[in-house]
Write a structure and sequence with these properties.
Helix content: 25-40%
Number of helices: 12
Structural class: alpha+beta
Strand order of the largest sheet: 3-2-1-4-5-10-9-8-6-7
Largest sheet: 10 strands, mixed
Radius of gyration: 22 Å
Number of strands: 10
Distance between the termini: 38 Å
Amino acid sequence: MDGIKEIADSFGAELKHRLPKQRKTQRTKLALLVATMLDVRSANLMELAAGLPREADRTGPLGNAKRYMRYQWITRLLGNPLVISDEIMEPFSREVLERAAAGGQPIVLILSKVSDRHQVLMLALRCGERALPLAWRVEETGGAIGFEKALLDAVVSWLPEQATVRLMGDRFYGTADLIGWCQECEWDYRLRLKGNLVMFDGADKTTTGKCARDRVYSLENVDLTGRRARTHIGIIHDPGHAEPWIIAMSEKPSYLRTLEYADRWGIEPMFSDFKSRGFGIEDTQLRYADRLDKLILVMSLALYVAVSTGQAVHHPTPSEKKVPRTSPGKSPEAEPPGSPEESAASSS
């Protein structure tokens, strides 16, 4: 517990330096929850509550008064509309972007969803073998989040002057709208396309998938979909791979330029800080978009602390350890009876 409080005090001072106008109560609570997240490394609020170094006096319905009250303290913080993720992340994101641009190489940004259970779209900076979150959007929708212009616009204003950017996006976001946006902003891009997209090459009409089957590996200045988004396309279908890479790109295609899409390949390991080997975001029982947004904020800030202090976030896999990781005394994944999360789940 003392270790958590020490980290909270240190990170609270960092928040005060970066966000001098932030309210003291918000800063103190956020710093304490970030430090607890770094120690517990779980998206389950009851597990976070068990590790939170905070006293509580009232009795809750689980028979564990302190843990339940700490849980309520966490949910109040996550539900606070004055905690705005973009505002808090901005100084941290600006710093890592400036550092990435200092070497003169293109800044590699990755656009991807980070959870299969929740509609979370994140823009992250590739940093070695991990992805550092810059900004994200959480939507209450039955389908996948589409092109989020507001998300990209927010990060554009944080970029250093004269920085060159290469955007990597998976095939959920390889769209005419995103291609047009990148061209307007003069961003380099490598965006994976679906195989069913209609494509116009002069007077000829075909699909991206048919070009891959016909072993057409390079297409210049073709128009995609009815929007007629003009772009270059490179295609790779290496032996042993079930599907080809069909990559829209800003430069004239070649094998090596198409292969640069591999900069976002292995996206699951890069985002594992958030998933099963890290904080376990897919295990959260939260249903409300605003609370999930702030839980991701806490995880992101904890990741920044871990990176700055050289700490590992990953839990070892069973093959990497002799004894499975267990946490005596932790509750099941379900949230407590009567909680907003359980009510939302039962009504859906």
